[in-house]
Amino acid sequence: MSERVVVLGVTGSIAAYKAADIASRLTKEGIEVHVVMTSAAERFITPLTLQTLSRHEVLTSAAADRPDWRPVHIALADKASLLLIAPASANVLAELAHGLAGHPLAEIALATRAPMLLAPAMNGNMWQHPATQSNIATLKTRGAQFIGPAEGLLACGYEGIGRMAEPVEIVDAALSLLSF
Ligand SMILES: Cc1cc2nc3c(=O)[nH]c(=O)nc-3n(C[C@H](O)[C@H](O)[C@H](O)COP(=O)(O)O)c2cc1C
Q: CA angle 74-75-80, nearest 5°?
């Protein structure tokens, strides 16, 4: 099988800790995993945890300048077989829908030609807001695939839609996209 490389984007959600499980499961499947974190994600989980579980250095906004002629975000965008963002915040969905490129994860999303799988996690009102739904529709028309969110008790105290899909489901969806 050809090399399978997942760029795993992690954003600023309480579900960010579940990205550790996703990174671990993908790595155990023999997949090369490169984690890219937003600055907000670093408030929820440390790069060290994700670096250890993914077995690769984590790209953070602060670490984007490397002593290499090739910008690391372009190298990762080209290398990716799949861009998986889990959890995907409302903010990042908006940035991606509008083609913004203000940090390494958004830059990679613009530069890569790999398929994109998004696992949103947010408060139910944020999810149902017309702005978020419009951003999702835009991303779907461009071919982005979504998994979740699910219903349940949310960390914000709400009950309803907004929970990130379970890591095992996200990994299964990623594996099936990688098999095409
Ligand atoms: C405790 C806490 C939990 C949060 N959880 C979420 C969440 O699940 N989904 C979301 O879209 N935003 C959530 N936010 C807000 C984001 O962290 C915020 O919008 C941030 O700017 C997102 O940045 P990013 O998209 O660059 O990662 C949360 C904020 C806090 C303080």
A: 100
Share of the chain above pLDDT 90, in %: 84
* Ligand 1 atom, smallest distance to 41 CA: 27
Ligand 1 atom closest to 162 (CA) = 8
Report pLDDT digits (tens) over 91-104.
999 999 999 999 99
Reported as a single tens digit per residue, the pLDDT across 141-154 is 999 999 999 998 87
DSSP state of 17: G
For the domain that residue 82 is a member of, what is the CATH number?
Answer: 3.40.50.1950
Active-site residue flag, 96: no
| Number of domains forming the structure of the chain | 1
Phi and psi (nearest 5°) for 150?
-100, 170
Residue whose CB lies within 8 A of the most ligand 1 atoms, among 17, 45, 91, for a mutation test: 91
Structural domain that includes position 29: 5-178
What is d(CA 108, CA 99) in angstroms, rounded to the nearest whole number? Answer: 11
